[in-house]
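Lab meeting tomorrow. Look over both lines:
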Amino acid sequence: MEALNLYLENFVLRMERKELLILQSGKDFDIHMLKEKEPEQSSSFCNFMRHEIERSNLKLSTMKNHLSTYRLLNQFRSTVTFDELNFNFLCEFENYLLKSKYHRNTIAKHMKHLKRYINLAINMELFEMHKYPFRKYKIKYMETRRTHLTPEELQLLEKLDLTHRRSLRKALDMFLFSCYTGLRFSDVVSIKKDNFHYIDNKLCLIYSSVKTDVSVRLPLSLLFEGKAIPIYERYKHNYRSLFNTSVDANSNVNKQLVRISYMAKLEKKYPSIQPGIPMLLFYYITEPTLLLYRNYWGIKVFVQQRFIVILWI
């Protein structure tokens, strides 16, 4: 019986992945599409990549990132054969993404995905090693400046009046909740009311990280004087998740945070940046902000592999 249950779980998972792939390709979904046979292996790298994404064991959020690379590849060139995969092809694809106004580090992410499936094709003996295009092509990254919010800047955000602006209010609440707890965006959008428990009459957040699968307990009353608790109370009646926001909304939420940066008149003065330019809020700011406050609020913090664990005192 256990083997049958495992088979059924894997079968349902494959069907869900196939449905997701069809929807991501922009086609109208029809139940009969699930009955279609898998395409036979051919010289098409695009078909190979799509097939491998569909049958992979990637987490849903990671799978969507890989599908975004697949879609961009199809937009750049509708058919790509294994014979076309060379140094010039990678350079042309990179230039296409640059002209499409993608950030250098976003381009690097897509090139890493492409490299993954070329490596996979080599391991499956579908592509010859001596033709490996990444031997000459180097993935380029741009160094980013990470910052944090000062107590004064955090207060500007907390006092910002967003009455009658529900989407901005929720984006700011999600961001502040991350600052108060150190959660990644993928965790913020995943937590539910069931993750909150009272232990010794104190509200705690108990969850497993989406990215690392590490189980964490956060005593909310001990963090930032319990400022995360009113945010929880405001959204606790949502049915699906605390903030009813999809992991796909990361880009849109960051755009809303840029607007909030200007509204709050946040400024950062760096030697290389013109004074008075607003500090733009993004989710990578939340973790350094919590670390900065560990002494300010009397919190003991360990950081291991970029994950924050609050110690019970």
